[in-house]
Design goal:
The protein is α+β, with helices and mostly antiparallel strands. The chain has a domain of 44 residues. The protein has 1 helix and 3 strands.
């Protein structure tokens, strides 16, 4: 699958549940710079509150489909 194939799979977002630790600001900045938004938070095993992040995929209508 190539770039843009999320339309074929009807995917509208990418969610990073458990993927970004609060004590890793470099990773958080990377994801935010690339369009991810904080949408919640979860508690790590050590008690740290870390953000859940999501990227909304902008779907473009496929001109080949009526």
């Amino acid at each position: 699958m190539g770039h843009g194939d999320h339309r074929l799979l009807a995917r509208t977002r990418i969610i990073l549940w458990g993927g970004v630790r609060a004590d890793n600001p470099r990773a958080i900045r990377y994801y935010e710079k690339n369009g991810f938004q904080r949408v919640g938070r979860f508690t790590e095993a050590d008690g740290t509150l870390s953000p859940d992040m999501m990227l909304a995929l902008h779907t473009v209508p496929d001109p080949a489909r009526p």
